[in-house]
Design goal:
This protein has one domain (5-188). The mean pLDDT is 86. With 190 residues, the chain is mainly α. 17% of the residues are buried. Helix 1 runs antiparallel to helix 5, helix 2 packs antiparallel against helix 4 (70-92) and helix 5 packs antiparallel against helix 7. The chain is elongated, with a radius of gyration of 20 Å. The longest helix is centred in the middle third of the chain and has 40 residues, at 99-138. It contains eight helices and no strands.
């Protein structure tokens, strides 16, 4: 018996997102206990470096196609971006004092959510579609009958395959806002 959709597809997404938030809160809490609230600036640098390093996947995918395993680069991208996002959340803390950093933070959270959609929901929807289609074929149904029965599933998977066309502009907007935030810090100080 297969797992319910909520457990198989949605719960891992929620757990990873919540774990990111809880990790940032725990680290921030420890920094305040150890009286190191100024360490948030260091976490901003560290988070930015990790997120920039996560783009090695995009570079490998588009430029250096022959080097390394795509799967390993994707995992590297996912974990570096996630860890970098935790560090940026620690950096931001709960001190929302300016609009530009707040917008960059919001875009980062949307970007992480979009990435997790790709990681869990897109992959799982493809697998579920393939399993369902194969199960119907194993019952002895013809290709035409199966195609009619799974038509809307195929359309849904096709739409979800366009996920990158949404994720990339979100990433670009996050990058622009982050760069603007960094530039304004250098231009105007604190």
């Amino acid at each position: 018996m297969s797992q319910p959709v909520l457990l198989k597809h949605v719960l891992p997404f929620i757990i990873w997102y919540a774990l990111m938030m809880l990790s940032a809160i725990a680290i921030d809490y420890l920094l305040h206990i150890w009286q190191l609230p100024g360490a948030g600036l260091f976490f901003g640098y560290l988070g930015t470096i990790l997120i920039v390093l996560s783009f090695a996947y995009s570079v490998r995918k588009r430029i250096y196609r022959a080097s390394g395993s795509p799967r390993r680069f994707l995992l590297f991208h996912e974990y570096m971006a996630w860890a970098g996002s935790v560090m940026i959340l620690v950096h931001a803390g709960i001190h929302y004092h300016a609009h530009l950093p707040r917008l960059a933070l919001i875009m980062m959270l949307i970007n992480v959510a979009s990435g997790l959609v790709g990681k869990f929901l897109l992959k799982n929807s493809r697998e579920a579609f393939t399993e369902n289609r194969n199960a119907l074929l194993e019952r002895g149904m013809s290709e035409a009958e199966v195609d009619k029965l799974v038509f809307f599933d195929a359309v849904a998977v096709s739409v979800m395959n366009q996920w990158r066309s949404i994720h990339l502009p979100i990433t670009l907007m996050f990058a622009i806002l982050s760069i603007l935030h960094i530039l304004t810090i250098f231009m105007f100080g604190k």
